[in-house]
């Protein structure tokens, strides 16, 4: 199977070094061949998928429980801010 | 004042006995542990940081409470440490990852808060594979961790630091996390006990996520009873993790049943392969004979889907990881990469993630892409459901499934470079995460002079049976904990 490594890297916002690109280009087809072995599994039971046994038994009350300390710690850690507004670089630069 | 002999090796039970009888104070025990870590850990590399001031302040508070007769928690004064992906408010938590190098926790993980509330003294944070992706702790962005049993070898991973810290005798117990074997495999390779609880038994709130449907906090210690002592404190429902479940009363560590008579032990042929280390296979087979001698019934069973467990794992796990790691954009703390938004993302992520993480993020994105979602992700979920059913069916006839924990003993640094070969080291542990069942690794002898782990798996929430089998085995095997390469 061929994989367009450059396209994949762009999708996940990664810039690969030439060495990484060479290594991944060699490894990806092998990894995909390995996981492709699943195609040979015959599904017999038509079972429901997903984490059924761990669905919440009940939901907690829908109440705002704001911890001001957590809020201020998150805001304080942010590199650029104006009051409580958090600044990020412009999309269009 | 020297440490009482009962503190070598350091266990929770030993520490509590010494503390409760007044042979030692929490402050002195904390000081001695920190001293040992500062002297010896440069040769091991288990700790990324110690919390000396915080730990000593807490230890003094516990001594004071003891003096005044104030109520004490169940782990009052016991020195422990946590993996670098568990949050402790105000402290760094990097998940072994460069992109999180300046990340200070804004809140404390539920498991860590419960440990502290029980009086445990958290001595520091422990090394791990980057973002918990790895089986040797070599992918950590920060340092190598050496196996205390042989410092030329890896400790296993991803919880290499937590396993090594217990095996070296630095602390009595540690918390790790297990997504595909990251507690059990390093426990096996370092010769300690390691438990991955049932998915939903322990809160994941405040654990830096890898694959959310598999992740579970686990415990390292020298004895099963000590693992239970930690579990009694950390387990149970948490409002902040909706997958955490309410639990019935469990046996106390002091009361754990160690009688193996009548216990039905399933032995799955698929876990005893010809390609595994022959010495490890022999050690596990010898352990099984001890079960039999103690009155357990060995039942040959077959779990045919086992061979598909690892491909299933390496589809669902990267898929979830790529989603979880999408949030790391380098914008929220520390130094921001320059440029407009898209350039800033690209620089931060490209510099901040190591090769294994990049590989899995890309793999996950590929698996979830429109053209391949059905073929890979959906198929893997369907196989997961079948595999889980296969375990549930097996537990209708047996109480426990026994196997090796790892196909190999600890290998030398740099010995495994190929990712698929590295992934194969999870081959015996990943099934429990896929099925969501609990599993424990206990030491069961040596191969090539290195520790071998016996893995015991039980049905969902059947930890009591798991404890009985594990503690019972260690008792009949006459197991005595050791530290380092003694």
Low-confidence stretches of chain B: none
> What would CATH call the architecture of chain B?
Alpha-Beta Complex
Helix-and-strand structural type of chain A: mainly alpha
For CATH, the homologous superfamily of chain B is named as Amidase signature (AS) domain
Total number of helices of chain B: 15
Structure, explained:
The complex is a heterodimer of chains A (93) and B (486). With 93 residues, chain A is mainly alpha-helical. Chain A has helices spanning 5-11, 18-35, 68-77, and strands at residues 81-82, 85-86. Chain A has a domain at 5-38: Histone, subunit A (Orthogonal Bundle). Chain A has a two-stranded antiparallel ribbon. The radius of gyration of chain A is 23 Å and the shape is flat. The mean pLDDT of chain A is 85. Chain B is of the alpha/beta class and 486 residues long. Chain B has one domain: Alpha-Beta Complex (Amidase signature (AS) enzymes), CATH 3.90.1300. Chain B has helices at 12-20, 26-40, 52-68, 110-117, 160-167, 184-190, 224-234, 278-293, 306-324, 341-352, 355-368, 373-394, 419-423, 430-435, 463-476; strands spanning 47-50, 79-83, 121-126, 173-178, 193-196, 216-221, 264-268, 297-301, 400-404, 439-447, 450-457. Chain B has an 11-stranded mixed sheet with strand order 1-3-2-4-6-5-10-11-9-7-8, with helices on both faces. In chain B, a hairpin with a 2-residue loop joins β10 (439-447) and β11. The longest helix of chain B has 22 residues, at 373-394. The mean pLDDT of chain B is 95. At the A-B interface, α1, α2 and α3 of A face α9, α10, α11, α12 and α13 of B.
């Amino acid at each position: 199977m061929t994989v367009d490594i450059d396209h994949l890297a762009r999708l996940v916002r990664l810039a690969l070094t030439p060495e990484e690109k060479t290594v991944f280009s060699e490894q990806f087809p092998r990894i995909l061949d390995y996981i492709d072995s699943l195609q040979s599994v015959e599904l017999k039971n038509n079972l429901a998928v997903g984490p059924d046994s761990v669905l919440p038994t009940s939901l907690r009350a829908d109440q705002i429980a704001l911890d001001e300390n957590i809020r201020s710690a998150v805001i304080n850690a942010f590199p650029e801010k104006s009051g409580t507004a958090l600044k990020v670089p412009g999309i269009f630069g | 004042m020297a440490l009482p002999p009962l503190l070598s090796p350091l266990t929770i039970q030993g520490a509590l006995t010494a503390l409760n009888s007044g042979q030692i104070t929490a402050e002195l025990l904390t000081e001695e542990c920190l001293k040992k870590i500062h002297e010896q850990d440069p040769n091991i590399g288990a700790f990324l940081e110690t919390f000396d001031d915080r730990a000593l302040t807490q230890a003094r508070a516990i001594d004071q409470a003891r003096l005044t007769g104030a109520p004490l928690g169940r782990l009052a004064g016991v020195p422990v440490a946590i993996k670098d992906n568990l949050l402790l408010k105000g402290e760094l938590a990097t998940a072994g990852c460069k992109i999180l190098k300046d990340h200070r926790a804004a809140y404390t993980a539920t498991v860590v808060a419960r440990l502290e509330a029980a009086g445990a003294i958290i001595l520091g944070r422990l090394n791990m594979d980057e973002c918990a992706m790895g089986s040797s702790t070599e992918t950590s962005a920060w340092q190598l961790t050496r196996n205390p049993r042989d410092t030329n070898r890896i400790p296993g991973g991803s919880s290499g630091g937590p396993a090594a810290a217990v095996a070296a005798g630095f602390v009595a117990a540690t918390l790790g996390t297990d997504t595909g074997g990251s507690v059990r495999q390093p426990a096996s390779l370092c010769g300690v006990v390691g438990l991955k609880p049932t998915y939903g038994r322990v809160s994941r709130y405040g654990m830096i996520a890898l694959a959310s449907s598999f992740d579970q906090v686990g415990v390292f210690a020298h004895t099963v009873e000590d693992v239970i002592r930690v579990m009694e404190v950390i387990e149970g429902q948490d409002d902040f993790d909706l997958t955490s479940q309410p639990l019935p009363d469990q046996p106390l560590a002091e009361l754990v049943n160690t009688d193996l008579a009548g216990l039905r032990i399933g032995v799955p042929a698929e876990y005893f392969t010809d390609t595994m280390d022959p010495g490890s296979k022999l050690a596990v087979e010898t352990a099984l004979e001890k079960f039999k001698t103690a009155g357990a019934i060995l039942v040959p069973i077959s779990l045919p889907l086992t061979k598909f467990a690892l491909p299933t794992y390496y589809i669902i796990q990267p898929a979830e990881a790529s989603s979880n790691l999408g949030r790391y954009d380098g914008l929220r703390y520390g130094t921001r990469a320059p440029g407009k938004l898209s350039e800033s993302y690209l620089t931060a992520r490209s510099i901040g993630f190591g090769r294994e993480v990049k590989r899995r993020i890309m793999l996950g994105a590929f698996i979830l892409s429109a053209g391949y979602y059905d073929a890979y992700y959906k198929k893997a979920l369907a196989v997961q459901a079948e595999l889980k059913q296969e375990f549930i069916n097996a537990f209708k006839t047996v109480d426990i499934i026994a196997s090796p924990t790892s196909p190999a003993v600890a290998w030398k640094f740099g010995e495994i470079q190929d990712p698929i070969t590295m992934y194969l080291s999870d081959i015996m542990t990943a099934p429990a995460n896929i099925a969501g069942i609990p599993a424990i690794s206990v030491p069961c002898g040596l191969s090539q002079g290195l520790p071998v782990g016996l893995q015991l798996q039980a049905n969902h929430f059947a930890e009591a049976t798991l404890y009985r089998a594990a503690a019972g085995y260690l008792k009949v095997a006459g197991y005595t904990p050791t530290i380092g390469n003694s």
